[in-house]
Amino acid sequence: QVHIVESGGGLVQPGNSLRLSCATFGSAWNYLTIGWFRQAPGTERKEILGVSSSDGSTYSTDSVKGRFSISRDNAKKTVDLQMNGLKPEDTALYYCAGLRTREPALQVAQLGSDAYEYWGQGTQVTVSS
C-alpha cells in the first residue's frame, strides 16, 4: 500500500513561483511512476507532469512547458513540482498520484488519470493579484 501527501499550495500573485512537494510512504517507491494532476472547478482532472520510476523520463503537457518542472528524489521518496511564471489560469487543486509501472512517463501519461492507483488529497493553488 502507498500513501501520498502533497504540500506547498497557497495563494500567489501572477508571475511568481511556487513549489509543491509530493511525499510517498510505502514500499513500492522503486516501481512508482508519479504524476502531477490539476483540476479547476468545472473541468476534468488532467495530468500536467509525470516522471517515470525506471528511466527518469518525464512528461509535461503543453500548457506548462517552459514554466513548470518535475524532479524526483529517490532518497527522500519525493517528487517536487516547481512552478514558475504562474498565471491565473493555473489556479486549481493539484494532486499527486502514483502508478506501479516501469513504463516511460510519456506512455503512462497516455493512459489517463483512471490508470493511477494512489492519490493524495490535493493541495490548492490560487494565482491572483
In short:
This protein is mainly beta and 129 residues long. Helix content is 4%, strand content 47%. Strands 2, 4, 5, 6, 9, 10 and 11 form a seven-stranded mixed β-sheet that branches.
Which helices and strands occur, and which strands form pairs?
Blueprint: E1 3-7, E2 10-12, E3 18-25, E4 32-39, E5 46-51, E6 58-60, E7 68-73, E8 78-83, E9 92-100, H1 105-109, E10 118-119, E11 123-127
Parallel strand pairs: 2-11
Antiparallel strand pairs: 1-3, 3-8, 4-5, 4-9, 5-6, 7-8, 9-10, 9-11
Describe the model.
The protein has 129 residues and is mainly β. The protein is built from one helix and eleven strands; from the N terminus they run βββββββββαββ. The protein has one helix spanning 105-109; strands spanning 3-7, 10-12, 18-25, 32-39, 46-51, 58-60, 68-73, 78-83, 92-100, 118-119, 123-127. Strands 2, 4, 5, 6, 9, 10 and 11 form a seven-stranded mixed beta sheet that branches. A four-stranded antiparallel beta sheet has the order 1-3-8-7, with no helix packed on it. A hairpin with a 6-residue loop joins strand 4 (32-39) and strand 5 (46-51). It starts with a strand and ends with a strand.
